[in-house]
Amino acid sequence: SAISSSDLEKLQVLGHGNGGTVYKVRHKRTSAIYALKVVHGDSDSTTRRQVLREMEILRRTDSANIVQCHGCLEKPSGDIAIVMEYMDLGTLDSLLKSSGTFSEAKLALVARQVLNGLSYLHAHKIIHRDIKPSNLLVNKNMEVKIADFGVSKIMCRTLDACTSYVGTCAYMSPERFDPDTYGGNYNGYASDIWSLGLTLMELYMGHFPFLPAGQRPDWATLMCAICFGEPPSLPDGASNEFRSFVECCLQKESSKRWTAEKLLSHPFLSRDPET
Ligand code: ADP
Ligand code: MG
User: Fold this and answer.
1) Which of 36, 91, 156, 187 has the fewest CB atoms below 10 angstroms from its CB?
2) What is the set of active-site residues?
3) Tell me, what's the ipTM?
4) What distance in Å separates the CA atoms of residue 19 and residue 47, rounded to the nearest whole number?
5) Can you give the pTM of this predicted structure?
6) Is the pLDDT of residue 172 over 90?
7) pLDDT tens digits, residue range 120-139?
8) Mean local confidence (pLDDT), 193-210
9) 69 C-alpha to center of ligand 1: Å?
10) Residue having the nearest C-alpha atom to atom 14 of ligand 1
11) Ligand 1 pocket, CB under 6 A
12) Annotated binding-site residue? 256
């Protein structure tokens, strides 16, 4: 049966985002724990549009590596809320901060699951457009799931607005800034692969790979580095398989970047976890 907002008791705030708040909630009758993303009725139209798009996408998707939606609520006050499965370890970003950098074996587990989610999305003509550590959720079984579809795009035949500036600048691929130079055969799906490559590097190195540790990103410096610089590479000590995997993700020319499907067969993912 459908969940109604009166069934849910708020336990704590899990995160604040662009216009919305995510709460940990408990279902009063079943005691089940969920995450509830709430956007208030008086929010601006962009915020409302984003949460409605997120609802639409979560309703359509069914993958082990995409956060599961248990229902959507719309109150007479205009408040909109999404009931999601609760991911008890939070985001990869918070895990990096609390437990330190990830080993290659762990990153291979992360990469396989994110790619599984991305290949599902891309096959369903959805581009996430904001893949980064704080939009990837984890639970204690080390299951990794893609969340936050606020700026995602459902492709309908045309390439129209995929070049618009949405998402977090730092993780944006060269062709999103400069489609004429790097977009050869413009392929919006490939921008999610770029963001995945940067995400894995960040989890390995402990800081955003385009910037030295501790430096705060400034938009212009970053854009120059992304468009005019070489793609970042891993420090000494990284294995050849990991290095190769990241290179396949961080091809500046989007048509040379591997697809999610192809990356799923990369040797980095099939290594013996002990080595
Ligand atoms: P925003 O668009 O505001 O960034 P997100 O969907 O990324 O919205 O959620 C914001 C934060 O709330 C996340 O970074 C995470 O810390 C927390 N959060 C979101 N969904 C869940 C969930 N299902 N389980 C646990 N924490 C979550
Ligand atoms: Mg987010």
Assistant:
1) 156
2) 130
3) 0.98
4) 6
5) 0.90
6) no
7) 999 999 999 999 999 999 99
8) 96
9) 13
10) 134
11) 14-15, 17-18, 20, 22, 35, 37, 67, 84-87, 90-91, 134-135, 137, 147-148, 150
12) no
